[in-house]
Amino acid sequence: MALDACTEVPVLKERGQREVFCGLTGIVWLHRKMQDAFFLVVGSRTCAHLIQSAAGVMIFAEPRFGTAILGEKDLAGLADANEELDRVVDQLLARRPDISTLFLVGSCPSEVIKLDLARAAERLSERFFPQVRILNYSGSGIETTFTQGEDTCLKSMVPILPSSNEKSLMVVGTLADVIEDQFRKIFDTLGLGPVYFFPPRRATNLPPVGKQTHLLLAQPFLSETARALIQRGGTLLEAPYPIGVEGTTAWLESAAKAWNINNEHFQKTIAPAKERAQIGLERYRQSLDGKSLFLFPDSQLEIPLARFLSRECGMELVEVGTPYIDRMLMQNEISLLPSDVLLSEGQDVERQLDRARLAKPDMTVCGLGLANPLEAEGMTTKWSIELVFSPIQGYDQTADLAELFARPLERKKRLSV
Ligand code: SF4
After folding, report:
1. At the topology level of CATH, where does 267-416 sit?
2. Which residues contact 323 (CB under 8 A, 6 or more apart)?
């Protein structure tokens, strides 16, 4: 454990046992977003089980993810896993002509046996491109947290984005379609564009990138993707994330400034949605005001959520834990946290549990693995993974986001009378 006080807010750094999901989880929201892509996990039965239970079993639709199971012979090096993989890909693409992009997703088992998926993607691309583009990335659980799966996926697409010198805005990070539409409407009214969303709804519809591309991050866990886009010439717009009224306003304003949009026009454009959000929030603020909050590190959304819950909902932050802090992407958020906040990076789960038990917070945000035991101890919890799966960004989702936290507190109140 070490204390890093190089910024205004000191950070408690911990390295110990961690309780997080792996990056395969990202397939759940990525496959819903990119409707023409298929995610083929190259892994074990455990990986297949994880992804199936995380995504739910789809009965009515052909799934757009699957697992090429590495059998015992593959794992023992007795069979040529590459041959097996080629066979599975052949079968899949023959059966599913709707697939335009195939992601080979690495896992712990494929990494342990050092299966070179980059080479496999190249080899298979020679046969299937241009009908199908084949890319690869790692969703392995080793040294990652679950949202990093999206980062590695998007990074794998950056080299194939077309080049362009046109001035444009690229919103980076998966957003629900409904939120994308809301933001697009605001950008259109502002007169700002062209605007591209990355990842796109169709994996073949890739956004262009170049020296005049302004990057506006919609998700805080895209460190590698952001750096790869900057290397391609993009400029990162500094802003907090579009969570809550304050975050959404500052996020939109950052883009508006890059387009020299007149402030009066900006304020007028956002006013109706901003007012709706403020009115909607008021109802839940009353339940949340003054309640204490402890966030365990899990999704990488912890810092923006803590900022929203403390500044707009009046919650008191006991500890804000996050898996890692990338200052380039997080500084604008950290500077909005109360200066006396306990910010922790990484995890030593037993120590952190001790701190939470001692503090007895009104609400604890944590991963699924910790939620049940803590509930059994009488603590009120919120699954952090739910916040990644739910549409929470933007003005129109602000009240819903506050409600996600207010509801368990209300339930507890009702049960205790
Ligand atoms: S990738 Fe690793 S951590 Fe994730 S399900 Fe497979 S074996 Fe488990």
Report:
1. Rossmann fold (3.40.50)
2. 18, 20, 145, 297, 298, 300, 345, 346, 347
Ligand 1 centroid vs 145 CA: distance in angstroms? 11
Say how far apart CA 395 and CA 405 lie, in whole Å.
Answer: 17
Give 353's pLDDT tier (boundaries 50, 70, 90).
Answer: very high
pLDDT per position as a tens digit, 61-74: 568 888 888 877 76
**Domain 168-240 = CATH 3.30.930.10:** no
Structure tokens at 130: 């241009």
**CA 20 to ligand 1 centroid distance, Å:** 11
pLDDT at 3 over 50: no
Residue-level pLDDT at 2: 46
Position 64 scores a pLDDT of 87
Measured CA to CA in angstroms, residue 53 lies from 35, 39, 102, 103, 327 at distances of 20, 15, 21, 20, 34
CA 223 vs CA 217, 279, 393: distances in Å = 10, 34, 19
Q: How far is the CA of 67 from the centre of ligand 1 (A)?
A: 12
pTM tops 0.70: yes
* Cis peptide bond prior to 194, omega within 30° of 0: yes
**Residues in contact with 252: Cβ distance below 8 Å, sequence separation at least 6, in sequence order:** 183, 186, 190, 242, 266, 270
CATH class of 23-144: alpha beta
User: Residue 56 has what pLDDT?
Assistant: 67
C-alpha 342 to ligand 1 mean position (Å): 31
Q: How far is the CA of 198 from the centre of ligand 1 (A)?
A: 26
Distance of CA 9 to the CA centre of its chain: 24
Tally of CB atoms within 10 A around 115: 21
The ranges of the chain annotated as CATH 3.40.50.1980 are: 23-144, 168-240, 267-416
Question: Which of 19, 24, 113, 137 has the most ligand 1 atoms within 8 A of CB, as the residue to mutate?
Answer: 24
Ligand 1 is surrounded, with C-beta below 6 A, by: 22, 24, 43-44, 46-47, 50, 107-109, 139-141
Question: Quick one: pLDDT at residue 234?
Answer: 98
